[in-house]
């Protein structure tokens, strides 16, 4: 029996012990945005297991609007990479002086190295959930897809895989490129593979872009 579960696991919900919670904290802390990948392939079983765990993410009205698309076609992958490079140059030119030089030195995607590309869409046309919870906050549908991305990310880390979220892309160009159904909105483009290196600190901290802030963990009272 796993040592993080109580003996009554078969008769009720699991009770996670202190050791498990500590390991869970390690998982969250070591979940990093990876941009440097090894070339070795990703085990298909591990990838499917991670997708299965992602499907356990919460969703508004039980709508489950996430749609994962594996981008394997070399021409499509090259077009995505070209769009990143175009957008990245434009983003660099939005900075000046030392910040621009620092931006240019950062590695912000592993599109050429990662063995797996996953485009994650939100199916805004889904009828699942019957609109529950979306009348006043329709954006909850997209937030649900983001929750699935985060669940996939943690699952991948637990399987020894790295994930990089590439946001320096133009969705209006990427979506038609991937020939997905109408009503699917791009939420995330993920690079997945085995990391070249392991670091507990975020890459942007390590390379001097910005330190972690205390404000991020502050609880505001009203």
Automatic annotation (TrEMBL):
<dbReference type="GO" id="GO:0016491">
    <property type="term" value="F:oxidoreductase activity"/>
</dbReference>
<dbReference type="InterPro" id="IPR012825">
    <property type="entry name" value="BluB"/>
</dbReference>
<dbReference type="Pfam" id="PF00881">
    <property type="entry name" value="Nitroreductase"/>
</dbReference>
<dbReference type="InterPro" id="IPR000415">
    <property type="entry name" value="Nitroreductase-like"/>
</dbReference>
<dbReference type="InterPro" id="IPR029479">
    <property type="entry name" value="Nitroreductase"/>
</dbReference>
<dbReference type="InterPro" id="IPR050627">
    <property type="entry name" value="Nitroreductase/BluB"/>
</dbReference>
<protein>
    <submittedName>
        <fullName>Cob(II)yrinic acid a,c-diamide reductase</fullName>
    </submittedName>
</protein>
<feature type="domain" description="Nitroreductase">
    <location>
        <begin position="29"/>
        <end position="194"/>
    </location>
</feature>
